[in-house]
Records
---
Amino acid sequence: MKIRENRVKQKLNNGELAYIISGLTNPDDIDNFGPNEFDGVWLEGEHGNVNASNLGDLTRACDLWSFTSIVRVNRNDQGLIYRTLDCGAMGIAVPHVNTKEEAQNVVDGTKFAPIGHRGMFTSRQGYGVDNYFEVANSQTMVVVLIEDIVAINNLDEILTVDHIDVFFVAPSDLATSMGHIGDLSHKDVQDTIDSALARIQDAGRTAGTLALDHSVEKYVKAGVQFLMVGVGGWISAGATTYKLNAEKART
């Protein structure tokens, strides 16, 4: 038995785009979305109901479709991080990483020795893999969220931390921290996002962000590889169009 390959990490390492879907909340949703050939599923454990009791089924559904399961936990806690991985996640996303030290803590909780301090337990992803502890670090993904203005101010130092796969610039909380609650389109917010994404790439690291239908082209042209989108917007848009078409048919 060989360790399962992390599809998102592979695509990023190859210089390709990686497509990540969020908003899928149960295994059946993941199965229904499976044929769309995305690369990863963002499982929401900060604002959603993902926890140790349902994580096994969610990540197994991801495995069936060769999706990389990336779980956003709700705090930068090493024990929480490696328990999430032990339950079957292939990647960890940690919110509000504002300093170099906080970024290093994420790595320490995600990686086994000699890189980090992850507890020595064979994850479900490692069942039957004889050399799991030797190879797990290579397939375990680390995403840190840059979502506060203090993180922007400390970005150059944060970018020096090794073994982080993606530095994800999160727009909503960033806008709030800048005093523009709910106004993601504000020029100062957009300029800050664009600058952060450029700085990440200038440092030779991989940038990610929320890329919606109206903005994905912009971010791809800017060099962003890790593209996350929520299914909720597509559902709302489709439902609105469906109703409009029905109403037009009556006139």
---
Amino acid sequence: MFSNKIKTLPEVTADRIIEYIIENRLEPDDRIPNETELGQILSVGRSTVREAVRLLVSRNVLVIRRGAGTYVAQNTGIPEDPLGLVFSTDRYKLAKDLLEMRIILEPEIASMAANRADERNIAEIWKYCRMTEEYIARDEDHMPPDVEFHKAIAKSTGNNVVEKIIPIIDTSVAVFVNITYGRLKDETITTHRLIAEAIERHDATAAKHAMMMHMLYNKYRIEEIIEKHSSNMTQFNTVI
């Protein structure tokens, strides 16, 4: 059944702030007017604006930066863990399950990116490709630029749904790097380069195959680790 609940003034104001963002074509990381200015624009009091902003922060539409103001959030409307993956107790199974989803989606996304990427997109993909290599060379955690590399490819598709979904799937990068302790460093460098080169050439088939190769390296590695983990647990239970 549909709810007949009447919206409160802060809830109505939150909706109007969203309308303001859309009408003014504000992008992620754009600053919105302060409480006083919004109150004047929307003809409501500062306390109402404050409550409305809190609602939008909880919905990941806005983000408050202390001392700087209120900004449109990245991945607007998508909470950090919309699938509740943080509650998964079996990190090995979670890594495998997420990887299966990536195998289904990301080769096609790479193919789409090869067809649609412009010079700016390609430059961003190469930026994070090289940054990942630099982090690996310094033996630092290469997860942050690795995630950005895949997000840049998704952005290159020009498909807003793909761009929203990939940050969720990229949780698997964090889980996988954590479980494997970053052991697939050489394979990551090689396959990332192949993917970037194919997209730069606008070779959709090569981009798809390179991404599939990247996914399969990860798949074989995680299966090997899961098998070893299961064997260790069996031996542990036998001893007990």
